[in-house]
User: Which sequence fits this backbone?
C-alpha cells in the first residue's frame, strides 16, 4: 500500500487535525500526515501536532505583502515535504484561484454544515435561526468558490428543542472527527475521486432506510 503524503493546514485549535493524525497512525490507513502548517504562529494545534511527532511549519500571512507571496511560501513548504494532498482543517485564509487550481482534486476541506446549506461562517447559529431539524457537516473538494466544491461525505445530526449554538456545535464536531478520517481514507484508497467536477464512488451502498429528527419521531 502506498501511503499518500498529506499536509493539514490549520489556523486554530486543530481538533479535526488530531482526529486525522490519530486515524493515520493506524498502519492500514492509506495516508500519512507528513506536515501540519499554520498561518498563525499561536495556533494551539501546532503544539498538539508537535506532541504527536508531526513536522510543523508556520507561514504567517502577516509576514507576506500579498496573498500570492503568502501562497508561494506555503507552496515551498509543501514541496519541501513532498506533499501530495492537502486537508484544510479550520484554515481561516481565503485561497487564491491560482493556489486552488494548482491543487485541484488534491485539496479537501471540512465545513460545519450540510452543504450547500450555510456556506461561510456562523453555520450553527444560522441553522438554529432557520428552525431546521437536521444539521451536520460536509467534506468536499476545494474549488475557487468558497464552500462550493464537490461533496465527498456528509454526516447528519438532529437539532433538538432548546439547542444553543454551543450544544449544536458540540454535537456536530463529534461527527466531524469521524467524518474527516472516513473521507480521507476513501480518497486515498481510491474509493472516491474527482472526475469532471463531480465525485465518483467505486462502490455502491444500500440506500434503504431514512433519517428522522427529532430522533423520537
Ligand atoms: C471546524 O468546525 C471545521 O468544520 C471548520 O473549522 C472548525 C475547525 O475546528 N472548518 P478545529 O480547529 O478542527 O477544532
Assistant:
Amino acid at each position: 500500500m502506498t501511503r499518500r503524503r498529506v499536509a493539514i493546514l490549520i489556523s486554530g485549535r486543530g481538533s479535526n487535525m488530531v482526529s486525522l493524525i490519530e486515524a493515520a497512525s493506524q498502519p492500514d490507513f492509506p495516508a500519512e500526515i507528513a506536515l501540519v502548517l499554520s498561518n498563525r504562529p499561536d495556533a494551539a494545534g501546532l503544539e498538539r501536532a508537535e506532541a504527536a511527532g508531526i513536522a510543523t511549519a508556520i507561514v504567517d500571512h502577516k509576514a507576506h505583502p500579498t496573498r500570492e507571496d503568502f501562497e508561494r511560501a506555503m507552496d515551498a513548504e509543501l514541496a519541501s515535504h513532498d506533499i501530495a494532498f492537502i486537508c484544510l482543517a479550520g484554515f481561516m485564509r481565503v485561497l487564491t484561484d491560482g493556489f486552488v487550481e494548482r491543487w485541484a482534486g488534491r485539496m479537501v476541506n471540512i465545513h460545519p454544515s450540510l452543504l450547500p446549506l450555510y456556506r461561510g461562517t456562523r453555520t450553527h447559529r444560522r441553522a438554529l435561526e432557520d428552525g431546521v431539524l437536521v444539521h451536520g457537516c460536509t467534506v468536499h473538494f476545494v474549488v475557487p468558490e468558497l464552500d462550493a466544491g464537490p461533496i465527498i461525505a456528509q454526516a447528519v445530526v438532529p437539532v433538538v428543542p432548546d439547542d444553543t449554538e454551543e450544544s449544536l456545535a458540540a454535537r456536530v464536531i463529534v461527527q466531524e472527527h469521524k467524518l474527516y478520517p472516513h473521507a480521507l481514507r476513501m480518497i486515498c484508497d481510491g474509493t472516491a475521486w474527482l472526475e469532471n467536477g463531480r465525485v465518483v464512488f467505486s462502490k455502491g451502498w444500500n440506500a434503504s432506510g431514512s433519517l428522522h429528527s427529532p430522533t423520537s419521531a
Notes: The pocket of 5-O-phosphono-beta-D-ribofuranosylamine is lined by residues 12-17, 89-90, 110-112, 137, 173, 176 (CB under 6 Å). The chain has a mean pLDDT of 95. Strands lie at 4-10, 31-38, 56-58, 85-88, 107-111, 134-141, 151-158, 192-195, 198-201.
